[in-house]
Amino acid sequence: MIRVLIVDDxxxxxxxxxxxxxxxxxxxxxxxxxxxxxxxLAQSLxxxxxxxxxxxxxxxxxxxxxxxxxxxxxxxxIALTTFDDDESVFDAIRAGALGYLLKDTRSAKLIExxxxxxxxxxxxxxxxxxxxxxxxxxxxxxGKRDVAAELGxxxxxxxxxxxxxxxxxxxxxxxxxxxxEGTVKNHVTTILSKLNVExxxxxxxxxxxxxxx
Length: 213
Fold this sequence. Notes:
With 213 residues, the chain is α/β, with parallel strands linked by helices. Helix content is 55%, strand content 13%.
């Protein structure tokens, strides 16, 4: 069972979030009203995942996230906030948040994000992923190196990577390329290994930063 710590300065929101998570079999081990409490409870309760608000009194969620993820083998942090401005998004990701969700996210997506985070995988709301991809595109190097060749990506793997980067699922990629879904899955596994990343989202972000898509 996944152990979750809820961090938010609004008691009513924490109560509602606890109800949603508990109904889906998630073990809510504690609640914190600010970043300082989050740091203390992260140490004493050892949750798997922390749902972290960003703007709170005493200590904000950005500073708390930075401190929590600096501890080896510590909890994974998902930013859960009402703010989707570029500064908040980039600051949370730079601080080490593994995911970024808005508070109006549907409960099913919230649970999916918690499950991904518990496995050490990123999960971002689509609008947030778009912001990050745009930023990576802006700062990407303009060189003409054959990065794909340097990474050992075959033409087929590069095609799969580009489809993956636009958000296509394995089944959709298989249909487009007229491949078996299992073959696509194998290509994705190889691509993640060659890019040295853990999941599809990070692969898409790295591909964008390297100018591969």
